[in-house]
Amino acid sequence: MRCGYFEAGRCRSCTFLETPYEEQLAAKRARVEAALAGLPGRRGAELRWSEPVRSSEEGFRNKAKMVVAGTVESPTLGILSPDGHGIDLRECGLHSAGLHDALPALAAFVTEARLTPYSVPERAGELKHLIVTESPEGELMVRFVLRSREALARLRTQLPGLVDALPVAVASVNLQPEHKAILEGPEEIPLHGKTLRMRVNDIDLHLRPQSFFQTNTAVAAALYRSAVALVSDIGPASVWDLYCGVGGFGLHVAAPGRQVVGVEVSEQAVESARTSAVEIGVAGSTTWVAGDATSWALARTDAPDLVIVNPPRRGVGPQLAGWLESADVPHVLYSSCNVDSLVRDLAAMPSLRPVSARLLDMFPHTGHHEVLVHLAR
Q1: What is the pTM of this model?
Q2: Which fold has domain 21-56+213-376?
Q3: Which residues are identified as catalytic?
Q4: Are strands 306-309 and 238-242 parallel, antiparallel or unpaired?
């Protein structure tokens, strides 16, 4: 992929853009294979690797996280330079076609609604970020990250025009008042719509503004299909999906005669999972719990046939890893976006042996990776 921003030195986020894609994929595979082969007491030859899941080299991102800078009349949507000024990246080749087409209209909306971009050097202004997600059907979720409520009335007044111009299914304001390098704050103010339908493998996942979803829809679909294949071979009667988010793994592996419990700290995400479960007819065999995955598991006196964990970059941590080691769980599927924390967690549960693994390239042109590992006791 060629990128004018990269070649001009304006954006270097895609650190491996100049490396041919096949070499990128091989380097990622080598890194995760070496990390897992180095586990104490494990022999790398025992671990079976499936072929990596490739990504499109461009147009794969379903989410644009744009820093807003510049002026009301001429806003920039992109990143900040080292001195805190805006670098416009509206033509970024990673974004899906719908995001690419929407960003100019969103920049125009900033001007129409008189949303003053936040200036980091001056610590002044209102609009800090635009976070835009596109569904596979082309609908959009648009989130305006504001410093305060000052611009809220103007935004509400102008919003109908934006909804007419773009396929906006959901719009909201997120309040982030602190002068920190934080993308968003805890308070979300709904403006239009409720959920964005993310159709993945014929299942409608319902994404709310603060819910997590993988930024590469096609590779996320392959991740869920890989999990389904593993679960089908194992044939568990009971599954726990910890860190379940909006239910991606749990909904995919739900099947007749199988009880699935999903646990996620976000109540909104849990509500979305319940909605999807009703729609696909598995509400009777699935349970969705709002709570901390580690605390919930440690409080249980039983254990399922299989546990799926999909934690953030920090991994599951010593407490949950210790519980998985001591509990009578015969199988674990661990989906990780950080092989370093994955290896640390696996070292804490030595009785669960990695038997198969697969690299999934969610993030081309970077060193980031996703790996799905099947552990068996």
Answers
A1: 0.95
A2: Rossmann fold (3.40.50)
A3: 337
A4: parallel
